Amino acid sequence: MASLLLLTSLILHLLSFSESSSSKLVLEEGYTVSTLLDFNKLHYASDGGIHPFSLLPLSNSDDLVLLDSSSSTFYTLSLPSSEDAEARVKVLAGNGKLGFSDGESKDVSFNKPKSFAVDEAGNVYVADRLNYVIRKIDKSGFTTTIAGGKARKIGNTDGPAQNASFSNEFELVYFSKMCSLLVVDRGNNLIRQINLNSKDCTNKSHKSGLGIASISVISILCVLFGSVLGFVARPFLNFRAGSFNQPPAQQDMESIPDQSGESNTDTLLRRQKRNC
Ligand SMILES: *[C@@H]1O[C@H](CO)[C@@H](O)[C@H](O)[C@H]1NC(C)=O
After folding, report:
1. What is the pLDDT at residue 243?
2. CA gap 67, 133 in Å, rounded
């Protein structure tokens, strides 16, 4: 009887120990969940509906890029600014058909992409894995193929991007520090890098805003400051040149006029001129 009790308490002890060590929870309070957009609602459900798969912010913009993988279509999404306002969802690229076609937004087709990245200039890079390529959508929706376009097969070849090949399981990350697109090539167990155009890695809207406008403001301020300085300093400069009213003690020795009415400095300057 005693040994049974001992065994029971031992088992209970072990159970409680394993429970406490394997499921420690720290429930942090203070967060709230709300629904921002309901794509089950009718006005989003026209044309077969939109099925959000992945979402990323568009750089230097209030908008986001939304991927519907099932219809292989990218959307630009503007979230409502207030409760009553409607979100705006606009096709960025993709005609809803599976395929491999570049060009204008409405002619573009992808093959069920599941990963994309966005650079500083707002270009979207698409891991179009089932086409074995990487695509690029510019801000207007115009789409090109930037890697794998000539290889068009599974592989792990580096080099000129159109001849490069990837596994059928990879994901893209924009890395501004290296101005690159990083390829998490899961199928090949590699992380790979594709250099981007440097203009696509800088915050253009910010730079042009700072450029011409601020340079002209700065130059106007310089001119104004220069004139004000000149105006304020004029009486002082005149006083230095013709300082008859001042007691000699406060005068600079060089500016004491000689009999001809010139200061010593003027005579010196004239001598130097003659010597030239
Ligand atoms: C790239 O691929 C094309 C077409 O397959 C081939 O003609 C070309 O020689 C390749 N270039 C390089 C640098 O491998």
Report:
1. 42
2. 17
